[in-house]
Fold each of these.
Amino acid sequence: THNYRITLLPGDGIGPEIMTVAVEVLKAVGQQCNLQFDFQEALIGGAAIDATGSPLPEETLLKCRNSEAVLLAAIGGYKWDNLPRPQRPETGLLGLRAGLELFANLRPAKILPQLIDASSLKREVVEGVDIMVVRELTGGVYFGQPKGIFTTETGEKRGVNTMAYTESEIDRIGRVAFETAQKRQGRLCSVDKANVLEVSQLWRDRISALASEYPDIELSHLYVDNAAMQLVRAPKQFDTIVTGNLFGDILSDAAAMLTGSIGMLPSASLGASGPGVFEPVHGSAPDIAGQDKANPLAQVLSAAMMLRYGLNQPEAADKIEQAVLQVLDSGYRTGDIMSEGMKPVGCQAMGEALLQAL
Amino acid sequence: THNYRITLLPGDGIGPEIMTVAVEVLKAVGQQCNLQFDFQEALIGGAAIDATGSPLPEETLLKCRNSEAVLLAAIGGYKWDNLPRPQRPETGLLGLRAGLELFANLRPAKILPQLIDASSLKREVVEGVDIMVVRELTGGVYFGQPKGIFTTETGEKRGVNTMAYTESEIDRIGRVAFETAQKRQGRLCSVDKANVLEVSQLWRDRISALASEYPDIELSHLYVDNAAMQLVRAPKQFDTIVTGNLFGDILSDAAAMLTGSIGMLPSASLGASGPGVFEPVHGSAPDIAGQDKANPLAQVLSAAMMLRYGLNQPEAADKIEQAVLQVLDSGYRTGDIMSEGMKPVGCQAMGEALLQAL
Ligand SMILES: CC(C)[C@H](C(=O)O)[C@@H](O)C(=O)O
Ligand SMILES: CC(C)[C@H](C(=O)O)[C@@H](O)C(=O)O
């Protein structure tokens, strides 16, 4: 038996409920695959602010560092929206990414045949869509210095952020992207704004240079505005997309929404060494928190990504993904993905259906 | 009779052909409305590079400044793609925006019932969509200093751009947006990334402060990633959107593509004083240039925007827009918007149909 120490960060809103389901699923699949999980909980986001005043207490970061993987649910809520920046839930999330050096964010956007009608796009446009967005996560305008609100010589305020990448930052995310494309259909589209931004020009130059090391990969480049258009127009053209932090934030959400059901989408954030963080794409949905209405499937699929990318246990990951498809085939639906003729269930009942399927 | 001096910038690719149609339409509507146009041509983009070495010759900028409005077609093409940045077509466009201080870019994305099936989105999702994106055009990361590719202390290259806005820059685009919303449905959505970026925080603070001067406008705020999702999920929720240069570039293209027919979409770029620039959203389509295949309607609708926003001649603008709807109703379609049962026409024939309709 393998023994893994996993840090759980339930966070805010629906976080705790969906985390409960994911933990049960992990335990069940662990028994089948001879994996033991040693779960330890820690605070992040609003929950951490309320308890300690900080959205990312030092203890949380230590626990994460001291584990093989981190399973995160969701953070934030109206309650903490108007706090000053250092005490906001998002700051905790950015601190976690920086603290664990999670430079590579993998965001799959895959259309499930069972849920295809949830898409706002025509069936023939989205049928078979299977995109992986590889987003750089610890650089770019999110972290560039200088940043702040300064006073100019004429006495007015000026808000400033710096969009910057070094060659080595580009290379390391580029390699992850090429390697990701190798495990997929072998097509990589790099997205930038090289016709306007110098930082994008360097990005394009380095990604193009890397391509010679991956002769099996078909590399293309798109400007970010065009990429946004192409995602709407003809998303099937994409296999793997690699881009910077801000463009990745925007495009991965647009790609996610092509599926029409972001309650289904997991993500992985990986560093060079140390634990990865696995979390759903959706938010903390404070309006339905605590009502047993949340869809736990993205959280469960995040646990599957943890097994696949964080713990190198692909069979266990497969089992979870199969179980998810099976409950969908059986017609179980939480409110966000409900459609006519299907069986409405709450968060807990969806969890039970998953355990049955396993 | 009013007499207007108009600078024409046909640019590259299909630019000259679609410009010819727009000029004929302007002449025809001018006769009906007692408007006289004194057209002067000038070079920009690739055409200007070939003739003078610069994508924006000084003479072009002077001619533009010395006119009441500028009608631009499209710039760029493979031929000039690998030139150094100062000699690229896009640099000419950015120089024109900066040189004329065109800080406000209006990009409508309106679904025409005649073309609704061209959309990749479901009919019920896009029916009635009518969005105006007000994009800041002379600030933000497009123009912020410092920018460039520098060498770090460790000897590696670092690409840097600066995303910055001052209070006065935000206020002036904010006012245009509130006033635009007043002429529309009275709903304004400001898009930023205030949960991460200080420049966005200042943006949100200023836009919120301005709102007290426009009590008739319903103001909301969205983060840019969520805005991209909402455009895909439920675009009808939007009336007027205001955002910075880069976010506006991405979101206005995504919004445009909701219509499925970007060959139909015009835009206006306005300054505090001096001439505005009016141009289609689509590019120069070098692959079909000179073959009489281009769709001139976005160019023609740009001429209508010129009449409306640049020359304050709304009746003449109305006439042109009516003519466009009429040719569509009559079934005329260029290749990009062709569908079964319609009458295929080339660029010139579409122009003749418009003159007939007028
Ligand atoms: C909450 C926010 C800081 C975060 C981001 O912008 O990265 C979120 O939008 C995401 O994509 O994970
Ligand atoms: C060509 C390019 C510089 C330009 C921009 O990014 O502004 C274009 O994409 C646009 O939106 O007008």
Amino acid sequence: MEEAHGADGNVEGTQVEIAVMEAMHKVVPPPPRSSLDKIKVRLKETFFPDDPFRRFKGQPPKKKWILGAQYLFPILGWVPTYSLSLFKSDLVSGLTITSLAIPQGISYAQLANLPPIIGLCLMADSSFVPPLVYSILGSSRDLAVGPVSIASLIMGSMLRQAANPRTDPYLFLQLAFTSTFFAGIVQASLGIFRLGFIIDFLSKATLTGFMAGAAIIVSLQQLKSMLGIVHFTKQMGLVPVMSSVFHKTDEWSWQTILMGICFLALLLLARHVSMRRPKLFWVSAGAPLTSVVLSTLLVFLFKAQNHGISIIGQLKSGLNRLSWDKLLFDSTYLGTIMKTGLVTGIISLTEGVAVGRTFASLKDYRVDGNKEMMAIGLMNIVGSCTSCYVTTGAFSRSAVNHQAGCKTALSNIVMSVTVMLTLLFLMPLFVYTPNVVLGAIIIAAVVGLIDVPAVYHLWKMDKIDFIVCLCAFLGVLFISVQDGLAIAVGISIFRILLQITRPNIVTLGNITGTDIYRNLHHYIDARRVPGFLILAVEAPINFTNTTYLNERITRCIEEEKAVDHHQAVLRFVILDLSAVPTIDTSGVSFLVDLKKSMEKHGFELVLVNPVGEVMEKLQRTNGVHNFFGVDSLYLTIGEAIISLSSLLKEST
Amino acid sequence: MEEAHGADGNVEGTQVEIAVMEAMHKVVPPPPRSSLDKIKVRLKETFFPDDPFRRFKGQPPKKKWILGAQYLFPILGWVPTYSLSLFKSDLVSGLTITSLAIPQGISYAQLANLPPIIGLCLMADSSFVPPLVYSILGSSRDLAVGPVSIASLIMGSMLRQAANPRTDPYLFLQLAFTSTFFAGIVQASLGIFRLGFIIDFLSKATLTGFMAGAAIIVSLQQLKSMLGIVHFTKQMGLVPVMSSVFHKTDEWSWQTILMGICFLALLLLARHVSMRRPKLFWVSAGAPLTSVVLSTLLVFLFKAQNHGISIIGQLKSGLNRLSWDKLLFDSTYLGTIMKTGLVTGIISLTEGVAVGRTFASLKDYRVDGNKEMMAIGLMNIVGSCTSCYVTTGAFSRSAVNHQAGCKTALSNIVMSVTVMLTLLFLMPLFVYTPNVVLGAIIIAAVVGLIDVPAVYHLWKMDKIDFIVCLCAFLGVLFISVQDGLAIAVGISIFRILLQITRPNIVTLGNITGTDIYRNLHHYIDARRVPGFLILAVEAPINFTNTTYLNERITRCIEEEKAVDHHQAVLRFVILDLSAVPTIDTSGVSFLVDLKKSMEKHGFELVLVNPVGEVMEKLQRTNGVHNFFGVDSLYLTIGEAIISLSSLLKEST
């Protein structure tokens, strides 16, 4: 802190100058490491950034076994210390989410185009096995597992391209199970191979737009049951659905519309109340089941099915049947199945992991992303063999679970058992449940996915994020669910590449009276140093941007020459590499060529503060050419300027 | 600058502290700019980094017209001042490259699978029109334009998938012209829409591997003529070619092999002499034509065609015919044509621009990349209508052109006219030219593309660049030319994304006795500051890395806590954002969440030196939450530590 750099101790004070020179700090290469070491570190950072084996270090072997078992089966972590008071909380929250799971599950099976008669059983199954599996393997305490709207929608819409659920329900069911199996495989392998970062490529902006678009698509599909239309389009897009709705005005049924509007209003009101007063969470949690019971009673009492209101109708009841014999690996459908599995797998994984992380950070515990992927993947693999379609952690139910005070994954087991018992014994009652109420429940559930404040926030913060969001939204609405997603991801990645291809180069100036150098265009009290042009590159230097950097730096020098007439003539170009984290061979050649070309034009290029990797590579070039020696490498801009100024004085 | 943040100066040394505080500098947001301004700047940097309109600024209208015309037609720049002495140089170099262009052109037409009888005419045409067009539009003075080996090879191998050049030569010719047309369209549009940076994605490493692989593929194809095999495989890969060679040992002709080896040795010797002594460039420049003349004479004198040596045979002679009526836009072939056009267009563009830039930097003039693309694109569009296939600036001939002392693009015109005259009047002489000599010429030409020292340099400098190079090489050899290229580009891009997804986070320490903070693992004299953890993030913070950063920073804190027992307890985490050029909405939320979660654990998060864009976005968050106020934003690490240390003292 007692450094006196920037003190230009000009004419006489040679003594001072020498002292300053001696205090100068050399740029040294980082301590040598073998290539193997470097590769090991890089691989570790890429695949094990959370260092999952840290806790095993220095433990006795027996403890290691216990820790290993607890890592694989998180249930072992909480079961030994489980208490009655914990069970009370879990029971309450388990029962609360059951009341939400039943109506939502029935509705979502419709979204996946599963005919209600199979759909309901399937939903019961999907709410039974997966939560059990998850409660053993999953590390989140709040996740409520089961079918979710978006994944159901995507699966339904993608499989419909290969099989017609109405004319060939058995084939459709086979495809659904097989896709679920593939989704599970994809999810588990992402976890096992520690490729969890792939879901990070779905940014918040992408998901916001995608969810909003999907919510609208889902809601539009409900117009069929909300309006009582019998012959509805099979397409999903905004345009065909709206045209179908307005071409079938003769099929609209006022009784259905009236009932739909009433129950939708009721559900939205309940939602509003719960959002205003989080303590009243049970209002919105209980509203769907209440609506189902109420509407079923109404239909039953008034025999409304004879007055244009369509009902679920006859149902088979029963427990989970093994379905691994229904998995279909026929080459005709394999393409569709794998594509569907991949898309639904990644989407449902994203939702599950995001929900798990959100509530983990609220309660301040950690969820291991890769571990979670393996749990969700295994859950779907097991699920596909026991008559379940794709399941994950649902946001709405997890929120209710959290608010109802769940403590461990046992609430999932409670839910699973309750759903099973309910459906086993009360199944016949659902015969009279009107489809219109299921539609209203879906709309009320997905409305929450349209997050207008988040979109506004994107607009305020970052225009490109907003564009990404908009593209995802419009793509889903007008092209297709999967293409909308692909376009948004493509734009997000292209944006990152563009930032690398066109990096920021800023001109730095000295903040008067200090040793601080900052962007001239940012800090108005920063001043140019006569005779010097100080540039900072703010990106890795690699093959994508060397051409640009060359052109840009040439332009900077020309502009500087044009401006700087009255001041000292430009002599040194200082390139601050502090913000250049990596460099590749093209980058190194670029620096070497730049230095040569500068020398040709009478300037000298000086580098400041190359970080570890960059310094290492420059040193390797030095071995060959000795281009960047002691007098063209400095640790700070201040030291470079002091040292070069004295050179300048000597030469004049 | 007189801001006194955090200064609650209560203890003894208040005077000193206040003095220090007064010297403290505030982080200010950059001067406000409208979104439109920012978008304008970004678009300019993306598409016009070289600022081509700069020279027009402040000029009178007439001058602007002249400059504009000179920009579009660089020929106008040098014709008015052209002199006899310049012409002398251009004539010599033009004649020198002619002697190289004729034998190479005949050979390359074979690579493109064009039967020699058409190929020779085509070659003559391709060496006539394109150089004329280029000399008008191109800005490089050294580029020698004509057919090149790699583009010929790719075109031949890709088109062969759609048409058989032996059974259906007319269709094949149509496809070749149409692909050339598409290649020209692609090239010109890249230039017009200023998307020239797309070719930057072909890194040096990719090209080194690709060129070496392609050179070997090309050489292998020459085994047909070198060994005199009649029934040769039509595939390109290493495996099928070698198996074909060793299954046809009965077709080997010793006369052909002997002749081939002799001439190949001659050519390689000439190449070696010229490389050793650059002044003797004419040795290797003249060797191919000498070989053709010599071998033709030998064949003619000894009637060698009757002794197992295959010759070119009967040729049509004639000038360029218009071929726009041969352009074929049939939907059956459109896919192949567009793919071929795209690949050959980009590859030949890369070669042309790279060669142009190399010689421009040697002679210290500028080549405008986008302008050059338009010139090469137009040259190919015109070429496709005048019986030419794809052409670009060839490295070998441009080097000879440069060494022979060319001054302007007139050497291209000289070459073009000479080639035409030669072929018009001397065509019948080529009837007796043996194919084996053409093979030897090709091998001698492409051997130079295998750049072993460059590969060794890649291995020394950067292991991943080496892997990229190796993948391109093996991909070309064992899969296919275009797939090898695609794989290498894919790996290069994936590597960049991975660097963003897994950015460097370094722990900084104070270099004793100074105000400098550097990486603890790099500078051994850097020391930890007790009570502080100073981290620097070296990448943009965005959706791809927030999860990782969160995990990594948590791990850093835990490691720090584990180490730091005897020292002061950890209280402040300083995040140096100097090397974070951009941030997106996910990044901002990450910082906000990180601050909250740190506070929960009893730490305080302090940010240092956010650059313009990052500061702007943090400020927008401040508008809502006031998260990053004056006491958690500092301009330098040193100032942050002084200010926070005093806080620490107060609290204890």
